[in-house]
Specification:
The protein is an alpha+beta fold. Helices cover 26% and strands 39% of the residues. The longest helix has 20 residues, at 112-131.
């Protein structure tokens, strides 16, 4: 018997992934962690980051995700996030152009609130780049 998890990744708009997996690694609010077969039941908040999914054929699938939460029990894992982007939805050139623009914008006179927003956007774009390995 294969030791597999049933995983679903869901946004308010759609189900992004559904299927059997060997493992899923998520950006937990306190630290990243991995769920394997027979993991203890857990509910955890997630922060912006990358979800790594390893399927039975040992392929790794990556998703750039926004904050949300995870629930795991009895080898069923549900991930609920505001946004989840797969590599096919991302364009490296566009992301790099946005990053360059935002980094230049940080050198302009801005309020602390504006700087904080730009820094978060830069962080999110860097997360997206990690998905495009």
């Amino acid at each position: 018997m294969e030791k597999l998890l049933e995983l679903e990744i869901v946004t308010p708009q759609q189900q992004v992934f559904q299927g059997k997996v060997l493992s899923v690694s998520v950006p937990g609010e306190l630290a990243p962690f991995q769920i394997l077969y027979n993991h203890a039941p857990i509910v955890s908040a997630l922060e912006n980051g990358v979800i790594f999914v390893i399927t039975p054929d040992e392929k790794t699938h990556r998703f750039a995700v926004s904050s949300g939460f995870l629930s795991a029990a009895e080898n069923k894992v549900s991930v609920f996030v505001e946004k989840a982007l797969s590599p096919s939805e991302l364009n490296r050139t566009e992301i790099e152009q946005k990053l360059n623009y935002l980094k230049k914008k940080l050198n302009e006179p801005l309020s602390e609130h504006q700087k904080k927003e730009i820094k978060q956007q830069i962080k999110d774009l860097n997360i997206q780049l990690k998905v495009l390995v």
